[in-house]
Amino acid sequence: MMLMNGGRSGEARLLAPGQSPTCCPINWVPISRISSATADPTRADYGFGLGLAVRATPGVVRMMGSVGQFSWPGASGTDWWADPKEDLAVVYLSAAPGPIRWHYRQKINALVYQAIME
Fold first, then answer.
1. I need a labelling partner for 45 at 20 to 30 A (CA). Which of 10, 17, 38, 64 fits?
2. What pLDDT is stored for residue 19 in this prediction?
3. 3-state SS of the chain?
């Protein structure tokens, strides 16, 4: 939530202005170009900015979400993402190493976004 709030947590400023991914969701390095054979396919077509995967384009990636969404997947199947447009932060914890973790990340992502009521 602090990252979505421009570096603030309550009244405390924990990041300098401009250090939050929402301030600069810049696609510095397309992750899919790093190594499409070994990279997490749930992050294909995301970019890399300020230490996080950043969704830079709409409707291309395999996961639901908004442009400006930022995230980072864990090696054993854990995942977290924040979507400032939806005012949404999700932490998903699992122990599913190997390719099966990508399946569960896509399922959890779809369940969360399909549960949002406008």
1. 17
2. 63
3. CCCCCCCEECCEECCCCCCCCCCCCCCCCCHHHHCCCCCCHHHCCCEEECCEEECCCCCCCCCCCCCCCEEEECCCCCEEEEEHHHCEEEEECCCCCCCHHHHHHHHHHHHHHHCCCC
**Residue in 5, 1, 114 with CA at minimum distance from that of residue 64:** 114
Structure confidence at residue 115 (pLDDT)? 94
Average pLDDT, consecutive stretches of 10 residues, N- to C-terminus, the chain (118 residues): 77 74 54 53 73 77 84 86 91 88 91 90
Residue corresponding to tokens 């995942």 = 79
- Residue carrying structure tokens 């199947």: 77
